Structure formats: structure tokens, C-alpha cells
Amino acid sequence: MKGKIACSAQRLGLLDPAMIKSVVDGSAFHVANQYRTENRVRITDADERQITSVVIGNSGVYQLSIQLKDGVLTTKCSCPLNEQPLCRHSVAVLLEYHRWAQVKAAPRSTSKSAAAPIATPHGVTSSALDIKLSEVTIFIEWLQASVRALEQAHPLPEAPALGAGEVVNWIKAVQSLEDRRRQSEEKHVTLEEDLRTREG
Q1: What is the per-residue pLDDT across 45-64, written as a single tens digit (0 to 9) for each?
Q2: C or N: which end of the chain has fewer Cβ atoms within 10 Å?
């Protein structure tokens, strides 16, 4: 889904939750905030003008790009939703970026003695902030292969061999979602067969 809205903010970091909530659908904001608090948003690349990210939604994993240019905020999400002006996944990314930008800026605006507790709000640990770029790259490659497999109704590819950490948790989350989707599909087929048997 693509979205576009006029934006008075000069930097993405200036888009706070209240501003975002005022321009999007209430239910989309509620779900987006839930995604953020459940740690389902992964920002892979970001600056004050654009964000590239992945969101683990309720029905799949979606890739997003967000850009702020010339007073216009544009979003592109791989989800099929038609929420206007922004889908819940785009809202979740903006909320996470705002939180992330605050965490990043906090140590520069505080003394060394106060920096430690402020640098890790909302349960963010140093391990979550120190993810290796090489592992993120491996995850993205696996995720892209997984999307292709799902599009062709094939099982997920074998998970890459990584040590314990955040990236492994991302992979497990995707695998869990796919397991639940498959179980739901199997139940749906069984119910349809039962219905046909009763009607026949």
C-alpha cells in the first residue's frame, strides 16, 4: 500500500505520536502502537529523511520505505491493506523511529552519570541496539526468500545458522506466524469439507 500526506515537520524525528495520531485512523494507530510495544518493528536503515524497515504484522511480514521530502511524507508498504492516509505498519514504523531517535539523542543531552538509565527506555537493552549489520543482512535475505516461498505456497526455507540474539528471535517470530497461518488454513479446509458433507 502507498500513502502520501502533507507534512509540516522538517525531520522525521519531529513526528511525535500525538501528531501521527491526529492524522491517521484511530484503530490503525491502536494496532500500530501495539506492534511497536510488542517489538515487531525492525528499522534496517534510517535518517531524518527516510526509513527502511520490516514489520511483523498479524497476517505476515511487510517491508516498508518511508520518505520525507519537500513537505510531503510518502510511505510504501508491501501489505494489502487500504487504510488511509497511512497503513498501520507505516504508523508503527513512525512511532518506533520517534522512540529510536529519542534514545539515540538522549546520551548527548544528558550527563554521563544520567545517560545509562535514559538511554534504555521501554525495556530496550544494549543487545537490542547492538545488532550486527551482517546478521540483519542475513535475516533480510532469508525473509525475501521466505516471501517468495510463501507466494508459491512452499514451506519457509531453512533458517540461517545464527547465534542466540535478536535476529534469531525475528526468525522465530516469522516461523511462528507461518505455523499459525498454516494451522488456520487447515482448519478452514476442514470446516469447508464438513459443511459440504452436511449439505450433501
Answers
A1: 888 899 999 999 888 899 99
A2: C
